[in-house]
Amino acid sequence: MTRLSVNVNKIATVRNSRGGSVPSVLEAAAVVAAAGAGGLTVHPRTDRRHITFEDVHAIADRFRDRWSDALEYNVEGDPQPEWLDLVCAVRPRQATLVPITPGEVTSSAGWVPDRHRHVLEPAVRRLRAAGIRVSLFVDPAADAVRWAKEMGADRVELYTEPYARAFERGCADAERSFARYAAAAELAHALGMGVNAGHDLDLANLVLFRTLPYLDEVSIGHALVSRAIFVGLDRVVREYLDVLRGV
Q: Rounded to whole angstroms, how far apart are CA atoms 165 and 152?
């Protein structure tokens, strides 16, 4: 079965909006693991807008005895020196290299082939030398997949927002978009790389996307946490009412 790696950035976003330690990223990670997810994903950014470098260490330490083939740690980010030092110190099972556009709200595209070679090649070498599997965040295009292989990546993570938007437009657009991703996945596999995917996947569009050939892992955060608010809100309201009733 395809691995589900849950991105807990959104929990940290809520925490940081108020300050303090609530909601707890560590508690969220524990719930995710207990529910059976196969991975935990974090994306520390230089502006510390959600996950902090301290969170990355804390999660690594909390689950140090549980990291295994059944539960993997995936740290995403722009491979700048500070981030690379963090990842090499923590040594997660996987590092996903993601390009950053100044001022972006969230990731908006994969790496552009033949750009940033001077940054990516040494970053990939350093991470792999530390025993960390490397995935590059790319668009579903043949040149991007081939370039990821040239950079030395073990996997690609296919950027799926275009698929999500196509899915919203209807079945015909969804099928056409999905075909591009299937071709990219087939090529990655033929080149000896694994296939991950992420960005705007949700309960509806995942039904088709889960059939992608050779799909190893999906990373999902925003949609999953957003639904959890409503799935769990009824229970929490009732718990507070019980306290007020003295139950």
A: 30
